[in-house]
Design goal:
heterodimer, A: 558 residues, alpha/beta, Rossmann fold, 3 domains, six-stranded parallel beta sheet, 24 helices, globular, B: 167 residues, alpha+beta, Alpha-Beta Plaits, 2 domains, five-stranded antiparallel beta sheet, four-stranded antiparallel beta sheet, 40% strand
Chain lengths: 558, 167
């Protein structure tokens, strides 16, 4: 039986097990939405296409399933771009369907026409413009396959109106065959053996774990491997949930705002075992100093990451979980006591600290610590981007994989709140907190309407300091306190929440922080908590741009 | 160092943009580029010359492989290979010096393929050195226009990109 292209999309989504779509309709996706009318797949109407993309991303990060998005042509499609780029930088699996003007009109600057495949080449793992409906089943099959295998990433399918309307036989392929796409999962045995030997001889080893550990489901192997070998573990922002934050071997996050002891450990290590991480410049600081006197083992599923930013002694291309499993078989206990006690010294010398006066203004770090305390470390957290994000990384000790969604690579303000909606829909039984800044939250606060419409009970904690705090901090240190364009006046967030039909809470005293968090947790619906915090608090430690990671500014009490 | 890569790609719309865009985005300089179909009509071959050291070239190749439409990449600079380029040169010429130009061209096994009262078009095929040599010799007559195809290359012997070693 012949069916339309639009119908094929819905049928294919069913085959892929998709039960939720984030989207926004429009003229070029009329038939697609019309087909959705007859389907059981749930559609979440966000209030901006960017919100849909971030929500799908948040959904994907916490469930491991690909996020699916619908948007119309032209502005609908271009509004997705930041969301796509965010997902691409952090290797998040997504499949996005965009409407397009009819093939006969492509290239004529037709109404709501945008070359979205051209625009998204650099920020998608792959994309398609489907002009022939007979190709559509294969394309959708490939898209899901590409998005969810190898190094994950977003794939976009652009569907002209006539492709959606045209009919053809629908046979959904069982398998894909693409000559140009064959990701490597199993690591090279010889390389793994060499790595195991190097690890066995290490005096001051450190495991540096990234998002690949979380995405591959390798967290259990990582824990076992670290415990068996007694090697301490530091993680990137993306890898935070890959290793329990309160474990004796956990060093917390490394890098620009990483812990003092994590950066000192990396700096003094003789062997670094990088797993599913990419030696971002926020992590390495000055590269020449970073690599000096070290051997580096780099495990990554993307061969292009190996040797890209840093010279590597033992490269292993493969899936983090599978390679860890192999390494585990060869793992021997190491005598790292002296090394661990050196790290303990660093921990004592440069602990994470802040001051909370009982009668003073609220310290932002205190809010994060209280969210950690009140949720028992078991909430799913999403963040926006800025100081609050770094404090979350420092003070919320994650205990479960996939319990954090935060824009690491692209650093997208406006990500966290819509992502929290997707996360909550993907894990309906969990408590979801979005930790936000007063600047970031306003970038997609329109999604309060979505939260209320579907009663998505996320708790938004706005760390409100009246500044674009991280930029203010940079201006304080590097622009001689010539503050410009960072002093922001926000709306009354409580009234804003209420205007949308959500709950709003205002917290101005340290003593009210914990009760407000508990109160929010008791409300069955979306809540915005406006925490008025100290306006000039800085994120410490801080590695100045292009400095060595051991040259941290550690800060002092104000 | 200049290196020549042979890149086999799916013969689909947009594939050249993907490849060229990748070079631009990652800051790799393209010295020359030539594209055409292969024996298999579903596959195109892009011959691209890049100026890169070995580390950078490795990164170029890895990044190319990340493109789904890229099937195979070979670094032809690692193998004995033949490289050719076609160049058309329009030179100012008249009845007085036409024969002289013809003589220069013949010694390079190049030809005149168009003649007018004020100009000739020379067709030159060969290595880059040879083409540069001819261009420099013809400069004294006044070169009006030049068009070059970019380098195309094959490995010597029976080895092919499809079956041979990858870069």
């Amino acid at each position: 039986m012949k069916i339309s292209g639009a119908r094929m999309v819905i049928e294919a989504l069913k085959k892929e097990g998709v039960d939720i779509i984030f989207g926004y309709p429009g003229g070029a996706v009329l038939s697609l939405y019309d087909q959705l009318y007859d389907s059981d797949i749930r559609h979440i109407l966000t209030r901006h296409e960017q919100g849909a993309a971030h929500a799908a991303d948040g959904y994907a990060r916490v469930t491991g399933k690909p996020g699916v998005v619908f948007a119309t042509s032209g502005p609908g499609a271009t509004n997705l771009v930041t969301g796509i780029a965010t997902a691409y930088m952090d290797s998040v699996p997504m499949v996005l369907f965009t409407g397009q003007v009819a093939t006969s009109l492509i290239g004529t600057d037709a109404f709501q026409e945008a070359d979205i495949t051209g625009i998204t080449y650099p920020v998608t793992k792959h994309n398609y413009l489907v002009k022939d409906v007979r190709q559509l089943p294969r394309v959708i099959k490939e898209a899901f396959h590409i998005a969810t295998t190898g190094r994950f990433g977003p794939v976009l399918i652009d569907l002209p109106k006539d492709t959606q309307a045209a009919e053809a036989e629908f046979v959904y392929p069982e398998k894909v065959s693409m000559v140009g796409y064959n990701p490597t999962y199993a690591g090279h045995q010889g390389q793994i053996a060499r790595a195991a030997k190097l690890i066995a001889r290490a005096q001051r080893p450190v495991i540096y774990a990234g998002g690949g550990v979380v995405f591959s489901g390798g967290h259990e192997y990582l824990l076992e491997f670290a415990e068996k070998t007694n090697i301490p573990v530091t993680t990137t922002l993306m890898g935070l949930t890959g290793f329990p934050g309160n474990h004796r071997l956990s060093l917390g996050m490394l890098g620009m705002h990483g812990t003092y002891w994590a950066n000192m450990s990396m700096s003094h290590a003789d062997v670094i075992i990088a797993i599913g991480a990419r030696f971002d410049e926020r992590v390495t600081g000055k590269v020449d100093d970073f690599v000096r006197d070290k051997k580096i083992i780099h495990i990554d599923i993307d061969p292009a990451e190996i040797g890209k930013n840093i010279r590597v002694d033992i490269p292993i291309v493969g899936d983090a979980r599978m390679v860890l499993g192999e390494l585990l078989k060869k793992a021997e206990p190491l005598a790292t006591e002296a090394w661990l006690s050196q790290i303990e010294d660093w921990k004592r010398q440069g602990p994470l600290c802040y001051k909370q006066d009982e009668n003073g203004k609220i310290a932002p770090q205190y809010v994060i610590e209280q969210i950690y305390q009140q949720t028992g470390g078991n909430a799913i957290i999403t963040t926006e981007v800025g100081q609050h994000q770094m404090w979350t990384a420092q003070y919320y000790r994650f205990s479960r994989p996939r319990s954090l969604a935060s824009s690491g690579g692209l650093g997208t303000m406006g990500y966290g709140f819509p992502a929290s909606l997707g996360a909550q829909l993907g894990r309906p039984d969990e408590l979801v907190f979005c930790i936000a800044g007063d600047g970031s939250f306003l970038m997609n606060s329109q999604e309060l309407a979505t939260a209320v419409a579907y009663n998505i009970p996320v708790k938004v904690a706005i760390i409100n300091n009246g500044y674009l705090g991280l930029v203010r901090q940079l201006q304080e240190f590097f622009c001689r306190r010539r503050y410009i364009a960072v002093d922001i006046q926000s709306p009354n967030f409580v009234k804003l929440a209420e205007a949308f039909g959500a709950h709003g809470l205002l917290v101005e005293k340290p003593g009210d922080v914990a009760p407000a968090i508990r109160r929010a947790m008791d409300i069955n619906g979306p809540v915005v908590i406006d925490f008025r915090v100290k306006d000039d608090e800085n994120v410490f430690p801080m590695v100045p741009p292009s400095a060595q990671i051991s040259e941290m500014i550690r800060g002092a009490f104000k | 160092m200049r290196k020549v890569l042979a890149v086999l790609v799916d013969n689909t719309p947009g594939v050249l943009v993907r490849v060229a865009g990748l070079f631009a985005r990652r800051g790799f300089n393209i010295e020359s580029l030539a594209v055409g179909t292969t024996v298999d009509k579903t596959v195109s071959r892009i011959t691209v010359e890049v100026d890169a050291d070995n580390e950078m070239l490795e990164q170029v190749i890895k990044q190319l492989y990340k493109l789904i439409n890229v099937l195979k990449v070979s670094n032809l600079s690692e193998f004995p290979s033949v490289h050719r380029e076609l160049c058309l040169i329009k030179v100012q010429a008249n009845a007085n010096n036409r024969a002289e130009i013809q003589q220069i061209l013949s010694s390079f096994r190049a030809h005149i393929i168009d003649i007018s009262h004020q100009s000739v078009i020379a067709e030159v095929t060969g290595s880059e050195d040879k083409i540069e040599a001819i261009i420099s010799l013809l400069q004294v007559y006044g070169i009006m226009e030049i068009v070059r195809t970019g380098k195309i290359s094959l490995m010597r012997g029976s080895k092919t990109v499809r079956n041979g070693e990858t870069g």
